[in-house]
């Protein structure tokens, strides 16, 4: 039977219609490892069809709203209809009206108590509407926890449904980014003490190796990153043991998880096998705990793609754009690399985008006018050139971007938008926290949205080491009076996470160890803040987080601020830094300031600091890590702290010795570029992704420059609001 999977995604530009507008599904032909990215989507599609085919014939499909976007990145409506889906619904309290044409209903949901309750209520409604036995299949993404089964049993509907796993892990959103599509993982981990997301992304990273290659080295920073690395090591060891004994792996049952061997073994590939050649290795896997850098995604990005997310929203590569004539009417437009103009513009500072789009419009107009004015005397070469230009960038495509630019320009020209940018820059540069708090008060008193006030309040707390004691109670009281229970819930959750606190209270750096899920508060950050040096301020100086807007490519995404996460990725890719971390010895003096800054950001405790592991033949083995706390560190006097700050970041380390096979990733051969996978545990921001791409493309001295980059995360954050939304939920 021919597959209804949209095969256009893996075709080359010459195989596709050149003048077609981009489809909703992003093409993956330009991916550094195109077959790997295409296989990821093909694998997700195969799992989806297995769930749909469990109910033969016509059926209704009911989706958890949070899964609508991820599934839209895997298949379109036509593909679902080809599998017998006659009606599509979102899961809510109203059960679909039963139709005699349906053979059954398929639910695809996350394993939450609320979803279990809603599905159970639907089953009871079906039983009241029809005397026939309704075939109900509940596909749970990505696995079935015991708690979900218990919730269904408590609702009395377990006997009326079949519960199956839908082990869909990473879904590719574009040529260089894939996500688990699991939201609010930082909130769950830090404020609710639920570490399950760490296991989920570690498992997904383990399975990803069957598509992109084994990880030669694993490096990371943050408590969650360390735990994920430990899970990776355990899974690799258990797989190796089961492989040597020719027995099924006791923990990682690849058949149950839906891992497919596409390397010649068909769909029934043996468990534990890989579809990539042994030479296909990922040189470094970098794990970044979002809690280590919560500041960056809360800031307003200034890239084209970042502002699209802030102003219009962004739902897995699809943007809803209001009509110029009828603002209430919105059109869904794809914004991914299949749109050649978007691919050209997305990582650029918005200030440079307008002139580029304007010049393209003028170029088209001039080309058309030249052809029309010459009429009979026009040369065929001119006509062909105009036709080629229109095929590469259709006029309708340019019109779309003109409309998007108009909307963004209108918002960015507002005085409040510019005032907010100034307040954010003031917070990041550490000029005056009082002026930032004054701006937050203005938002609240004007009746502004909770998220607008909350984002800037958290930024002030993170960058200043807390809200000044003299203003702490006043700010809390103002927020609760203005926003009621929602505001109170958000403040309480953010305090538990360690992102919002009173200055001087002992707390965990940037949030890497201060929440419910990470009970050990950070000694290092607390000690340094007692001496008057908040963790972010130390990192700003040592890691050079604030530079001239034109001084570095990465600084263009945030008006002179280089994302902390990007600096940490550069450090973890540096062989000298990784060597010092892995050796377990006291770092040299020139590296000490960097170690201390990383420790303050990540938590101070050894398991939360930067770490490096070496992998051999795909098996991650733990190596000794540096216990920086044994080196004196922040327990020293104020003058020693001043020396650390004055030391700054060691300059270009690109000439460092990379010959040690025990501490650095195997150097890539001269025939290929270095392959790097960067995994964010807790979400990655659009502006952050733009900065990573820009540096990877650049010819700078950065350790990230010139690499084949794949960014994965549990979710892609369209805006700072997206990161904090979960904290407002009771």
Structure in words:
By secondary structure, the protein is α/β, with parallel strands linked by helices. It contains 26 helices and 19 strands. The strands form five sheets. It has an eight-stranded mixed sheet with strand order 6-7-18-16-11-9-14-15, sandwiched between helices. Helix 6 crosses helix 18 and helix 15 runs antiparallel to helix 16. The longest helix has 29 residues, at about 470-495. The protein is globular and about 75 Å long. The chain starts with about 35 loop residues before the first helix and ends in a 6-residue tail after the last helix. Residues about 1-20, about 245-275, about 510-530 and about 615-665 have low confidence and may be disordered.
What tags apply to this protein structure?
disordered N terminus, 19 strands, five-stranded parallel sheet, 26 helices
What is the compact description of this entry?
The chain contains 26 helices and 19 strands. With 730 residues, it is an alpha/beta fold.
* Beta-strand content bin: 5-15%
Helical coverage, percent range: 40-55%
| Category from helices, strands and their pairing | alpha/beta
Main sheet makeup:
8 strands, mixed
Write out the strand line-up for the largest beta sheet, numbering strands in chain order.
6-7-18-16-11-9-14-15
Mean pLDDT: 78
Low-confidence stretches: 1-20, 244-275, 508-531, 616-666
